[in-house]
Specification:
Two copies of one chain form a homodimer.
Chain A (H helix, E strand, L loop, with lengths): L4 H10 L9 E2 L5 E2 L8 E2 L2 H15 L4 H4 L5 H9 L10 E3 L3 H19 L5 E5 L4 H14 L4 E5 L5 H4 L4 E7 L11 H10 L3 E5 L11 H4 L3 E4 L14 E4 L1 H4 L38 H14 L4 H22 L6 E2 L11 E5 L3 H10 L2 E2 L1 E3 L3 E5 L7 H17 L15
Helix pairs in contact in A: 1-14, 2-11, 4-11, 5-6, 12-14
């Protein structure tokens, strides 16, 4: 049975999450399918920024470190984020970048193994992991030298064989940034730990998009960003979670003053905070940090079960419509079809993927492109409508059918592509 | 001859920098002498934040990484900041926190020595350095183990003796956060380098407050924050400078994707950017980062020579008035009197310094307190008036004379003190 646009409109009318779209400021004439890269603007963010800037900074000045709760904000936001990733209170801080936070937890994992199993010096990850994760692991391994190294697998099936008795830690991204493929976090964590290694999860493409249960999975460490599905704003600070069983012995070398037990005692020796403060390092960018709350507040109006249900409905619809309407063109689904094996994005490969994505953007359908040949489309259930999916596929079909992607301007690459 | 308030008012009328105060939003009834901790709000910042949030993020969405120049912003702001610290174009990036940036340059310095003088494993610094600098150095030394360690001196005079042939790097803060004492950067850099070590300068308390000439001094590395005298906003991103002679071989372990030669090629191996991009790590908080420009723009309306002249006039006046009006009380000048030995802050010690600072704040005179017993007063020439100095001292005198600081609420400590 062919799906029509009126069918999609009906689904929007029936959508229990439909009302949440009003909490975002979305530009006219745009179908935004790139919330997996940069989430859209929550309607409260502009006012919150004004409050932080004019009231807290302008009027409160230095007093706002106490009076406006700036110093406590990484912890407060961590507590607000925690339920979305299956973490408890006092387990998460929002701070620094995903890359820096990965450095912290990788160093902590290697430090842990050095105490308990010093022969374990290998970091296992995937060649298809998001590059910054691999670069940070390389940076730490090169710094440590002395046998520390990275071992990359080419496919998830290779993980068991890679988990030899020299492995200290496995670093996996829950939902792959290119393909949208999702790991079974609980199963893989068990596998990693049974092999004597620690498990670090990068949640950048899953937090806010799919239910995550870190404590349920018994994971060791997790990090992720807040500017994708969590709608925290461009480059908004990232987060760190550490399993409570590691908290008291957690040690990391980015031991800046915000991680100190008594930061304002100005003692010359570092003594880590007794709690999660030890995951912090330096002074945080308050305006950007404060906006993380506006994104998280919207999640308070629903739950991850409802979000996941709509996410799967949107992505199923997108796959079905593309396969129905674009069957004449070399468009290949890269994302796994099975629900339990994918996140909230759908990737299609096309030899001219780059130019097609630019042509889509010119028509107001914003997805993005990742090498090689991957057209990525992210579906944020908080603001994406079923009719948007229908319209996006209609425009894709038209671009493919007319060949309108083949213009010089659509082949030109900017600094960020 | 006794200085009167009308004398101070006349100095304000004659002040060539007097007009710059209008570029700041300062609260009524406040004399703000804490710009050395958190700079005041530039009048343009609120509008700039709205532009970034509603136009660039809200409307531009993901396209703003190219179209609004987000990806290039750390370099562009670095170029704008460079003249204030005696750096050239393409030498500075604004990014991350001071603590993270210190970790990068310390690691780079140790890496450099490992190639050239592998027996040099000691980091020399001062016990009175800002604690986060010491904590970061400890964190890196502990991570590396293998003989790497921190050697602390108790006074600047001890530096020559500490610079033995095992020293890899000396890490000094140009202007001391507690005392306001300033090093002769050129002389100390020469001393450090003559001993075979590398020189790292922390400019957090000097950039924007005193003329700094990194290239003139031949320093090796520098880092600093933008939220003090540079008025970038609470926790605004920090900066890194590396002497061009080290640029091509600079290596640091926080090797996130923003430091890669081709970040969007998504290659699994880290290859550092050929230029200053290699000092970057992860995705930056764009709203906070963009506001750094508003602070820097104001410096474009004057120059560091004029700023320094007014800074010395303000601090001389403050010292003179305190010594004149508060001579009956146990208030001791901690800051060196000589112009070439101090920055733009004046610190006085008093056994009840904490309570006195709280009493001053309650009266609208905002300075701050640092253990032990130090009352700090920062003088930002861009917005501080000579009459403010007179009024601040009059209020200090009254608080001391009446003993009004001795109330329970002035002894109570918040999280941040």
């Amino acid at each position: 049975m062919t799906i029509t646009r009126p069918d999609c409109e009906q689904r929007d009318r029936d959508d229990p999450l439909g009302a949440l779209r009003q909490h975002f400021d979305l530009p006219e004439g745009v179908i935004y399918l790139d919330g997996n890269s940069l989430g859209a603007l929550p309607r409260q963010s502009a006012a919150r920024a004004q409050q932080v800037i004019t009231q807290e900074w302008g009027n409160g000045l230095i007093r706002s470190w106490n009076d406006a709760g700036w110093f406590a904000l990484p912890r407060r936001l961590g507590d607000q984020l925690a339920p979305l990733i299956g973490a408890g209170a006092n387990e998460v801080v929002v701070t620094d970048t995903t890359s820096s936070n990965l450095f912290k937890v990788l160093a902590a994992a290697l430090h842990h193994q050095k105490q308990h199993a010093p022969q374990r010096k290998i970091i296992v990850s995937e060649r298809s992991n998001f590059p910054t994760d691999l670069y940070i692991a390389q940076g730490l391994a090169n710094l440590l030298d002395d046998g520390y190294a990275l071992r990359l697998i080419d496919a998830p099936e290779e993980l068991p064989a890679a988990l030899r008795d020299d492995v200290a830690v496995a670093l996996l991204t829950h939902v792959n940034y290119r393909t949208g493929a999702m790991y079974d976090m609980a199963a893989q964590t068990s596998l990693i730990q049974a092999a004597g290694a620690l498990a670090i999860w990068d949640l950048s493409h899953s937090a806010g998009a799919v239910p995550v249960d870190l404590n349920g999975a018994g994971a060791d460490y997790a990090i992720g960003c807040t500017y994708k599905y969590l709608n925290g704003g461009p480059g908004a600070p990232a987060y760190v979670w550490v399993n409570p069983r590691h908290q008291a012995t957690f040690w990391q070398p980015l031991s800046g003053w915000w991680g100190h037990r008594q930061p304002f005692a100005m003692l010359p020796d570092y003594q880590p905070d007794e709690g999660i403060g030890r995951y912090l390092c330096g002074t945080q960018p308050m305006v950007s940090l404060a906006l993380v709350q506006c994104g998280l507040d919207i999640f308070g109006k629903t739950d991850m079960r409802a979000i996941r249900a709509k996410s799967l409905a949107l992505t199923d619809l997108f796959i079905e419509l593309v396969e129905q309407h674009c069957a004449d063109f070399p468009v290949t689904l890269v994302t796994p079809r099975a629900h339990d094996m994918r996140g909230s994005q759908v990737s299609f490969e096309h030899p001219q993927g780059f130019a097609i994505v630019q042509a889509l953007i010119a028509r107001g359908v914003i997805g993005d492109y990742r090498e090689p040949g991957i057209m990525r489309f992210g579906f944020t259930p908080l603001y994406t409508r079923f009719a948007d999916v229908w319209d996006a596929v209609a425009i894709l079909r038209e671009i493919l059918a007319t060949g309108s992607w083949d213009r010089p301007e659509f082949h030109r690459r900017g600094a960020v592509t």
